[in-house]
């Protein structure tokens, strides 16, 4: 039997109201055990989707736990398609926890992360990409990524994937007819038809893939890493961009020991901005770990802002930075230009010939706007425009699309070479299956578990 699950669905902390919810057959019975209504005594006349006022109490000792509102939502027209009971109690940490404990003592099981949404998926209310969009919606950090998730929740991506898979199904049907009735002269027609449809599928997959890189950036933010030797002004830059004193700034080299991550919007472009420990060789263990981490985040960066100090001569540490950023998408800052300069922008440019070099005095707030302008330019000059087209924002979806692309390319190659239809059929089927993993139509139990395990509790 499928058990009844329960979880706290709101954030635990200082909040006005907290929600504890249950899903499954026993939800209403459990609620009846621990709830006493003022008018509606024991939820006998629990009306579907009506709020009832009353108290949660412990049936063992009769003690009142909290004053609440309670809602019963009857299967199948609910979030999970199962019976659901939601209890709206006072916020904070204690009430929600006490009520959850009572519910668990009365026969429910603690829900795994994402299990409510997993049930919605397993019971057919959502497809997998919509379930994933629920999570993206919660995690969205900008209006744009929010809009994309909402669109995917409403099924924009699912519809597109279905459309492509339907073309593939049609192709499979033609192949099967030709294999079953080889003598009726339909083979020629089949090859022509396969070619047209195969190309259509490839085109649609490519369109989606083209949105993927920008889509990821819109979802997660442009991964921007501030890099430089100690004391050049990296943390000052972070604070200047954020316009708040987020990171500690001192004149002691080695102030920042670990990486600091923050999110900021520059005219609609979301940045995940990372301040790092200054790169230098050091004996200090903590600082050394910080430096190693800094080097590691460089590998995953979309953009590096390399900071140099105009008031000190270029050192071997600076050379190391130059090597690190040479092959990367980067902007070079020459900072502290308000101090007596050891060298200028022209000199620095010789070392980083292909990079944009900006002169700044972060202490005086000079050059920050120019930096922001430059980031914007670099972002918008990059291929795909932000538009209302369907975006692929999820890495898993991108990987499935890449597999499907390979399948359809192989099928098309086979068609062009007139190889036997049953060989081509294998590729078309793989393509259909790989796309089906996006909507969850064809997917294994363990991949499902993995996807939902990354959800949050109570969703
Ligand atoms: N109190 C509360 N608020 C919430 C949620 C919730 O579970 N509880 N949601 C949880 O994420 C979101 C709303 N999402 C929901 C999605 C579907 C259904 C639902 O009952 N669907 C039925 C009936 C639809 C209808 O009446 O037309 C269905 O699809 O059959 C409910 C909530 C946000 N707000
Ligand atoms: N004169 C001048 N001082 C600056 C400028 N930018 C930063 N500073 C100062 O330089 C010192 C170091 O700044 P931080 O931002 O802590 O440097 P950092 O690169 O984060 O240093 P670590 O975390 O140690 O790697 C502080 O005293 C800042 O006030 C600038 O444009 N001009
Ligand atoms: Mg610092």
Automatic annotation (TrEMBL):
Keyword Phosphoprotein: no
Record's keyword terms, sorted: Cytoplasm, GTP-binding, Hydrolase, Magnesium, Metal-binding, Nucleotide-binding, Potassium, tRNA processing
Residues given in the record as K(+) binding sites: 231, 250, 252, 255
One GO term describing the cellular component: cytosol
Keyword Cytoplasm listed: yes
Database matches in SUPFAM superfamilies: P-loop containing nucleoside triphosphate hydrolases (SSF52540)
Annotated binding of GTP, by residue: 231-236, 250-256, 275-278
Annotated compartments: Cytoplasm
Residues given in the record as Mg(2+) binding sites: 235, 256
E.C. no: 3.6.-.-
Main location: cytoplasm
Pfam families: MMR_HSR1, MnmE_helical, TrmE_N
Record-listed (6S)-5-formyl-5,6,7,8-tetrahydrofolate binding positions: 21, 86, 125, 459
Tree of life domain: Bacteria
Start and end residues of each TrmE-type G domain: 221-380
GO molecular function: GTP binding; GTPase activity; identical protein binding; metal ion binding
UniProt cofactor(s): K(+)
InterPro entries (alphabetical): G_TrmE, GTP-bd, GTP-bd_TrmE_N, GTPase_MnmE, MnmE_dom2, MnmE_helical, P-loop_NTPase, Small_GTP-bd
One Gene Ontology biological process: tRNA methylation
Free-text remark on how the cofactor is bound: Binds 1 potassium ion per subunit.
Family (UniProt): Belongs to the TRAFAC class TrmE-Era-EngA-EngB-Septin-like GTPase superfamily. TrmE GTPase family.
Described purpose of this protein according to its UniProt entry: Exhibits a very high intrinsic GTPase hydrolysis rate. Involved in the addition of a carboxymethylaminomethyl (cmnm) group at the wobble position (U34) of certain tRNAs, forming tRNA-cmnm(5)s(2)U34.
Protein known as: tRNA modification GTPase MnmE
Organism encoding this protein: Anaerosalibacter massiliensis
Organism classification: Bacteria, Bacillati, Bacillota, Tissierellia, Tissierellales
Gene name in the database record: mnmE
């Amino acid at each position: 039997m499928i058990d009844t699950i329960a979880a706290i669905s709101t954030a635990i902390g200082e909040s006005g109201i907290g929600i504890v919810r249950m899903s499954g057959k026993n939800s209403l019975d459990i609620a009846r055990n621990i709830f006493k209504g003022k008018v509606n005594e024991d939820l006998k006349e629990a009306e579907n989707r009506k709020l009832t006022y009353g108290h949660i109490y412990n049936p063992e000792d009769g003690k009142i736990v909290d004053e609440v509102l309670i809602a019963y939502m009857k299967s199948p027209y609910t979030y999970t398609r199962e019976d659901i009971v939601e209890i709206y109690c006072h916020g904070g940490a204690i009430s929600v926890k006490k009520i959850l404990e009572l519910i668990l003592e009365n026969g429910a099981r603690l829900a795994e992360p994402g299990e409510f949404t997993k049930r919605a998926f397993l019971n057919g209310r959502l497809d997998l990409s919509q379930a994933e969009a629920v999570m993206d919606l919660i995690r969205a950090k900008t209006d744009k990524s929010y809009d994309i998730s909402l669109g995917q929740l409403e099924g924009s991506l699912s519809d597109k994937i279905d459309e492509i898979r339907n073309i593939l199904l049609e192709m499979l049907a033609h192949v099967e007819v030709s294999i079953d009735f080889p003598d009726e002269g339909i083979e020629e027609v089949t090859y022509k038809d396969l070619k047209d449809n195969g190309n259509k599928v490839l085109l649609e997959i490519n369109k989606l893939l083209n949105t993927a890189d920008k889509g990821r950036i819109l979802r997660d933010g442009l991964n921007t890493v501030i890099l430089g030797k100690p004391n050049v002004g990296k943390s000052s830059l972070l604070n200047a961009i954020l316009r708040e004193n987020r990171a500690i700034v001192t004149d002691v080299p080695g102030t920042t020991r670990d990486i600091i991550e923050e999110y900021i919007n520059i005219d609609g472009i979301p940045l995940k901005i990372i301040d790092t420990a200054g790169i230098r060789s050091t004996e200090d263990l903590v600082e050394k770990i910080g430096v190693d981490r800094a080097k590691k985040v460089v590998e995953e960066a979309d953009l590096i802002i390399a900071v140099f100090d105009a008031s000190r001569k270029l050192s071997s540490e600076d050379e190391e930075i130059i090597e690190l950023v040479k092959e990367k998408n980067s902007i070079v800052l020459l900072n502290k230009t308000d101090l007596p300069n050891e060298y200028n922008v022209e000199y620095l440019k010789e070392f980083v010939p292909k990079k944009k070099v900006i002169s700044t005095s972060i202490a005086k707030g000079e050059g920050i706007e120019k930096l922001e302008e430059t980031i914007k330019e670099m972002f918008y000059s990059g291929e795909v425009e932000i538009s209302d087209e369907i975006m692929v924002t999820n890495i898993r979806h991108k990987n499935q699309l890449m597999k499907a692309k390979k399948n359809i390319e192989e099928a098309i190659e086979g068609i062009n070479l007139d190889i036997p239809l049953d060989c081509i059929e294998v590729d078309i089927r793989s393509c259909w299956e790989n796309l089906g993993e996006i909507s969850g139509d064809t997917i294994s139990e363990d991949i499902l578990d993995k996807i939902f395990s990354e959800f949050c509790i109570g969703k």
